[in-house]
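Memo to structure team: turn this sequence into structure tokens by end of day. - J.P.
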Amino acid sequence: MTRQTKTRTALDTLGDLYPFQSHWLDIGGVYMHYLDEGAGDPILMLHGNPTWSFYYRDLVIGLRDRYRVIVPDHVGCGMSDKPQSYPYTLSTHIKNLQCLIDHLGLDRVTLAVHDWGGAIGMGWAVRNLRKVERLIVFNTAAFLGGRMPMRIAICRLPLLGALLVRGLNGFARPATWLASTQHHRMAREVRRGYLLPYDSWSNRIAVHRFVQDIPSSPRVPSYYVVERLQLALAQLRDRPMIVFWGMRDFCFTPFFLDEWIRRFPQAEVHKFEDAGHYVVEDAHERILPALSKFLA
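Reply from structure team:
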């Protein structure tokens, strides 16, 4: 059975929740899956951990009649390949994103970022300033600082972390109720959609590697990448930016929102007091009108 057939078979189980056509990019023998919907000015949406392009499904549907919406699954995530011997680091994910953008010939990009998508997307953006048109920020960071929640720190412990994250699915599964405050939206089929790509020890490798790569100290490979990135962020200050923030996020707390505002004082900010880390899941119908106005 081909990669495309296997993927389509899996995605068909989601029905109308994920009504998109799949595309792949071969990056050195590893295939990255991505969505490429609609036509017009490009909007590039980057997910975090432990989500995938499924997270942005409502925004894709709401924007693809006017814009070209591209949503990749980072290698190891979603429907992308999940190699077991692979450098799952921030630098690698930025390079993979560069390969996708070059492959698609994207220019004047509106960049939307969430969670790890912030460091990955901004890491690309500061190296490609002339290609960046606008910025959309959802509960994320691209700078050092903040306190790591204990429930995430535990998942980084040697041996125990692998058992919890990869063996018991103790990161992706709890996120389906801890990261969203609108629990009525997390119906069984929606939870299954979030967890669909992460159904085994081997398929949860990137979920674990992302946790291990959180830049908490200089001992972590991503630390110096983010340290350089935060110094370069000021080069993007003249770009129009809109921020949508779930204020009940246990991970990306208001500390991170304040830091975005400090660095980008011109940004248009929308706070959702009743939304959590999965702010797009919790508030997409309130996000879309403001986002459409911003894009227009």
